[in-house]
Amino acid sequence: MRRPLSIMRAADDWIEVLYKVVGEGLHLLTRKQPGDIVSLLGPIGQPFQFHRERPSALLIGGGVGIPPMIFIADEMRRESGNWRPLAILGSEIPFPFDLQSSNLPVAGVDDAVSSTMPLLERWGIPARLTSLQGYEGCYNGYVTALAERWLQHLDSSERGRVEVFACGPTPMLRVVAELAARYDLPCQVSLEEFMACAIGGCAGCVVKIETTDGPQMKRVCVDGPVFDASTVVW
User: Fold this and answer.
1) pTM over cut 0.90
2) 218 or 19, higher pLDDT
3) Domains recognised in the chain with CATH numbers
């Protein structure tokens, strides 16, 4: 079966993915060499939607949910507009990049929390890293705790320009949804589910979503993976 992977960056003739080796399928992928051919299907499903009236994008990524946040940051820096993304990325295993101390300030965040992703730093996009593993310069806690620190530092006018985008494990996304609801912020989440066909035929990746017609089972592969966090039945 195919493996669902998020696109981290893309251009006219290439895409970049970041993945964690878990089972046999991804182990086989690590054995591919430059010049080898792989079979791809995509992109599939519904993407994140940008809203210019909320240019302060809070990007929250956990584990293998980090790549979609990099994709959003890349798209926003390429688009014309007054986008001001902030990325908060968490991992409980070593980050798949060298940690760098950031020179880009983040309001409400202690100076000791300085580690960032070098790629985002080069793009001029502020980011901070979180972990419970004691990695140097990382916030000792969950992504949602650091996100709330930043939100608390904003006044009501500034918060009115914030929209939350998140991808990661389901327990993390549930807490992100609760955080967004507490601060009355729009929030889009990209759900992680096992997928078999990826074309909506097998219905193996369904989740319960509240709609205007009541709760319905939606397929993550084609109806998602991005949903309004307030509609997801967690």
Assistant:
1) yes
2) 218
3) 51-190 (3.40.50.80), 192-234 (2.10.240.10)
